[in-house]
Amino acid sequence: MKAIISRFKYRGDYEIIHAFETAIQSTYKTHFNDQPTTIPIPLHPVRQQQRLFNQAEAIAQKLIQPYHTNILTRQDNTKQSKKSRYERITSLNPFTVTKQPPEKILLIDDIYTTGTTLRQAADLLIKHGAKSVESFTLIRS
Fold it and tell me: Coiled-coil annotation: which residues (predicted)?
């Protein structure tokens, strides 16, 4: 799985996401019938330009429902993959809320390592008015 994610995320092989389409859709239908507002974890603009696509957004596209990329932005361009577990857990929140978040949110990300990325995004969204934030990830490492 590590090799597949590396190829998808770091070598820009977008087509790999299609192999997960059925699993993504069935998992979503099983666990998120209430259809919360979907927000893919954003990449910093420089990172998005380097990768040519946002892997979390690629997952959100497979849900076949609207998703929102204008509620949360990323200010920090530091690679999480280069940080130790301690550095990830103690890092400053890299996100900014750009508009009032809805009450029910589903954050989408590609990989759950320490949970820090999702936790930081969720904390900020709740601080700005969201009532509940859940997450959906492709992989847990």
Answer: none
